[in-house]
Design the sequence.
């Protein structure tokens, strides 16, 4: 019987607060690929809480003073070289972090290039120009050092290839999947969320903002920070009831989505778009910006407006809240489309990417 492929993998996103899109992807990789003959050694700069993932694999945590890039160029290479027996592959999962000079190959997950393509959307530490330069340098070096690169969509693949041409031949696309745990919620579960927000269907956001003059209750889920509070205040000044439930646990997402009249996703740029995928899987119709990666995910199962055009979004919201009947057909198309994004398909593509990287000669450049 052949020995399992050993993969050292960066798990820092799982060690940081509420689950994120990258955290969801990492969890799926570990849960789906471990039974398929891969053995993972997790690396982090912070301890991971006891979870199903941490029970699946060995985890090593080590922290050194300094920021993210300093850890990737200092502590991480030492941790990777200390693993015995040496792994077959290192998987950098967080857009950069592939050290040079490793004795075995690396795979880089480059989910998107938001800080490069739209740097104005990123809250850079001061001095911003220096940190932008450090980011681009880290991404470019990691792409060059990696034996292979995975990204989430053809739109992201094109962005990466246009900015790092020498990496274009290394890129594989591995779309996200609807998690196994995500199932449409019972009617009573969604009704409890509606009761919490006033008893009627609501417009739901996972981040993003709009300015309709008349609308049902608006629910902004996610971080409750100053920007969210300012948005709520602005909407309430226009007579719109706003709720800020904060981060919603994974177990409650389907019910929250199921209680919504409409899910709204006004993202200016995406590498994929996990929230629209979950909305489709929940049977919730959605209005979304026409960002290329989101169109790739949603297809004909959404209503689109031009990215950044608040007036167009307001007109769409006004139309569907006046006459929501067409939304039923939209929801049905969304359920059908979401059914194609399976964990089995994700696992097969990721295994091929691992095999491509592990089969390359030598280590990191």
Sequence:
């Amino acid at each position: 019987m052949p020995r399992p492929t050993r993969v050292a993998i960066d798990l820092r996103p799982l060690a940081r607060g509420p689950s994120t899109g990258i955290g969801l992807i990492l969890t799926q990789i570990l849960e789906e690929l471990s039974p398929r003959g891969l053995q993972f050694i997790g690396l982090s700069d912070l301890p991971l809480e006891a979870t199903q993932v941490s029970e699946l694999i060995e985890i090593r945590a080590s922290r050194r003073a300094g920021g993210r890039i300093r850890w990737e160029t200092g502590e991480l290479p030492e941790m990777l070289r200390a693993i015995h027996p040496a792994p077959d592959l290192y998987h950098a999962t967080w857009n950069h972090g592939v050290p040079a000079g490793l004795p075995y190959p690396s795979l880089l997950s480059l989910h998107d290039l938001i800080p490069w393509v739209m740097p104005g959307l990123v809250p850079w530490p001061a001095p911003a120009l220096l940190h932008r330069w450090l980011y681009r340098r880290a991404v470019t070096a990691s792409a060059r050092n990696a034996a292979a690169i995975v990204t989430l969509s053809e739109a992201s693949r094109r962005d990466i290839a246009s900015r790092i041409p020498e990496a274009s031949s290394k890129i594989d696309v591995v779309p996200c999947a609807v998690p196994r745990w995500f199932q449409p919620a019972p009617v009573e579960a969604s009704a409890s969320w509606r009761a919490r927000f006033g008893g009627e269907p609501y417009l739901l956001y996972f981040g993003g903002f709009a300015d309709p003059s008349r609308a049902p209750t608006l629910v902004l889920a996610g971080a409750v920070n100053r920007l969210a509070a300012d948005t709520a205040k602005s909407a309430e000044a226009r007579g719109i009831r706003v709720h800020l439930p904060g981060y919603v646990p994974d177990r409650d997402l389907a019910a929250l989505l199921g209680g919504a009249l409409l899910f709204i996703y006004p993202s200016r740029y995406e590498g994929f778009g996990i929230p629209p995928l979950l909305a489709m899987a929940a049977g919730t119709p959605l209005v979304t910006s026409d960002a290329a990666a989101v169109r790739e995910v949603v297809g004909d199962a959404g209503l689109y407006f031009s990215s950044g055009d608040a007036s167009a979004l307001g007109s769409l919201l006004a139309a569907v809240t006046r006459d929501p009947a067409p939304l039923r057909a939209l929801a049905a198309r969304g359920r059908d489309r979401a059914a194609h994004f399976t964990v089995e398909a994700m696992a097969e593509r990721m295994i091929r990417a691992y095999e491509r990287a592990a089969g390359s000669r030598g280590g990191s450049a």
Remarks:
- Residues 129 and 359 are 38 Å apart (CA to CA).
- DSSP finds 15 helices and 13 strands in the chain.
- The first strand starts at residue 5 and ends at 10.
- The two ends are 32 Å apart (CA to CA).
